[in-house]
Amino acid sequence: MFMMSNSSSPIMEIERSNLDLEMEFPQDFRCPISMELMKEPVIIPTGVTYERKNIEKWFFRYKKTTCPATMQNVQNFNVTPNHTLKRLILVWQNNHSPSSSSPSPSPSHSPSPSPSYKRDEMVSLLQTLGSSPFKVNSLKKIREIIESGDEMKLDFIILGGLDELFQLIVQILVDCLDFMVFRACEEAFGVLQHLPISEEHDGKVIELLSKPECMKSMSIILQRGSMDARIYAITILKKLAKADFNWTVMVNLEQGIGMFKSMLELASDELSIKASSSSLQVLIKILDSSKKSRSRVIEAGAMCTLIELLPDSNRSKCEKILQIIKLLCECADGRMAFIDHRLGIGAVSKKLFNVSEMASKICVKIFSLVCGFHPTEKVLEEMIVYGAVKKLVVLLHMNGPSSTKNKVLDMFKKHGNLWSRYPCFPSELKEYLCLHPR
Question: Any signal peptide, and if so, which residues (predicted)?
Answer without folding.
Answer: none
